[in-house]
Amino acid sequence: MSSAAEQEAVAERATPDTVMNGASRKVPRPRVWPGASTPLGARFRVGPDGVAGTNFALWAGGAESVELCLFDEAGRETRARLTELTHEIWHGFVPGIMPGQRYGYRVHGRWDPWTGGRWNPAKLLLDPYARAVDGEFSLPPEVYGHVRDWPQQQVADTVRDERDSAPHVPKGVVVHDDDDWADDRRPKTPWADSVIYELHVRGFTRLHPGIPEELRGTYAGLAHPAAVEHLVKLGVTAVELLPVHQFAHEDHLLRRGLKNYWGYNSIGYFAPHAAYASAGTTGGQVGEFKRMVRALHAAGIEVILDVVYNHTAEAGELGPTLSLKGIDNRGYYRVQADARRYADYTGCGNTLHVVQPHVLRLITDSLRYWVTEMGVDGFRFDLAAALARSMHDVDMLSPFLAVIAQDPVLRRVKLIAEPWDVGSGGYQVGAFPPLWTEWNDRYRDAVRDFWRHALPDVREMGYRLSGSSDLYAWGGRRPYASVNFVTAHDGFTLRDLVSYDRKHNEANGEGNRDGTNDNRSWNGGAEGETADERVLALRRRQLRNLLTTLLLSTGVPMLVAGDELGRTQGGNNNAYCQDNEISWVDWALLEEPGWRALFDLTSRLIALRHRHPVLRRRAFFSGRAHSADGLRDLAWFTERGTEMTEGDWYAPAATLGMYLSGRDIPGRDERGALITDDSFLAVLHAGDRPVNFVLPGAPWAERYEVVVDTSREEQAEAPGVTHPAGMPVTVPGRAVLLLRVVG
């Protein structure tokens, strides 16, 4: 039925009553039919007798009643009570409500903070299942369920605020989309072949000269050929987007004239963040996001979302009432024995109570929605240990992990855990079950420490280079369970890692107290920017060392947008509130020869990784000989050219040789043939003076060809120099030499 016909049918079949609104004006009262309790949220459809309208369904377990609030273009509100209640879900079908309609809820119940009840119908609440959100949260006193400025702050959260919040909060938007994704082709890149690129939709596109100005900072900007071209040239297989769920800004930032730039403050788990859309905020953001996904898929690039299901933007008992807190506070959040207080395993004021079935349903419904209706290929779960908690402790048999493991949609997509939270026992690196990969911070710390020559020996480095079998070789897990990274959005950029010994977060307005002090960085002899060419040359070499190490390591490498260009944040290691040039990618760096050379090296290393399966193994190394000549799949060498003994692993050292055999790669290709490849020797030398490294002779090789030498500034092409086995080769101070076996 066409839209015009639908509206005509509604006019004939649905005659509204009238009601007085807050401005004492007679307005039509929507007629509410019983509707259905599923699916949750607002779903436009054709109802009884062919009447078009929208079904509204809201879980509000402890509520006494629920009002649906509809808003016209002028912001005038019309209310309709939902009278149907099925399994704690309030629902109704409203004829004539079309896509683009703005709405919210007022939920009635007992105000009793001492037992966790914080119902306050004066507060307009965002539908947790809203698929589009119109407007921004500004957080004046009216949006707080309690009297925020009560003189006795220790009891302020117990005093109910009766002011109407509707003029100050965003509204949900009814969206209709019957897209079946028939023209989309998901890349479905195997984990072992993946190279992840963490980026911020706004920050990656905001300054790109090839993107039209009106599209910069948006989903459409990321879909633009100029943005996609960079990703393709670089060779990454997936983008990991910093949060794109609708989020709100914290009050303490707004008071300082700042905003939450990273977005780890979600309030709408089904809605693409409206500020990143060029197509408007009344539903256009949904289609724009989908077109972005299609464009990336067409280029062979997967889309992974960084998702924040551990907490919401409502903070603690002194936070605003925006959605879940006013729907059923105790039903959605973990509270302490004193139910006024929240159990905070996230450091953000609250923690979602994932053990509750309806909370688990909210999360899994959201995940499935983004896969099936928005086209995404996987998720990185912020503070995933908080989701894996049962009643208190982290439990790898928790309901959340169990549901994911058996879900026919979610178990097939990429699942990445940030395997820690801030609660007791929250550090869980290596503990997540099969199906999951993890951010491996032990890889990050070891590589940083090695290249600043701060490791007591090379044992840790050996594990990290070869896939972290000490962490992941159990339960059928594979080397790609480890997402290897040196930098992430949180912390120094790669350039700042080699330019600053200390954080410089003054612009955040928190007295430089925010952000970690454990940076494991080294400035090379001068703090921050310098004109000393000796220091600059050392820093550029260290950048090449770090990138080369990352892309030669077994596991899944993750780069951060702009690191391949030498992006700097001026030493700010916590730029979560810097929506400006501090955080945005500076594309002008590509025009500078030194930084262009870094990009060229990075793309060449990624291409090398794609060509050689020995660099992206699907199984752990055995370290055993599989042939009569004694050649093993992995061997470690000292600078003397001898295999490392147990004592060598414990001795202080700055040099490590890693031999990767291409003859013994487990598994078969798609046609069942054995996989073979070239063999490589990687020599990593973190000392400041050159070392003569003796190249291993028979049975390892007869000759070696230099493929990468990070002591060289320019290496758009492989150096191509060969060296005989058994002879020493000079490795300059602080350099990586990658050699291919040629005989």
UniProtKB/TrEMBL annotation:
Superkingdom of this protein's organism: Bacteria
Gene3D superfamilies with a match to the protein in the record: Glycosidases, Golgi alpha-mannosidase II, Immunoglobulins
Molecular function terms, GO-annotated: isoamylase activity
Pfam families per UniProt: Alpha-amylase, CBM_48
Top enzyme class: hydrolase
Ranges where the Glycosyl hydrolase family 13 catalytic domain occurs: 198-609
Listed Basic and acidic residues bias regions: 504-517
Stretches for region Disordered: 1-32, 504-527
Keywords: Glycosidase, Hydrolase
E.C. designation(s): 3.2.1.68
Coiled coil: none
Family named by the database record: Belongs to the glycosyl hydrolase 13 family.
Name this protein carries in UniProt: Isoamylase
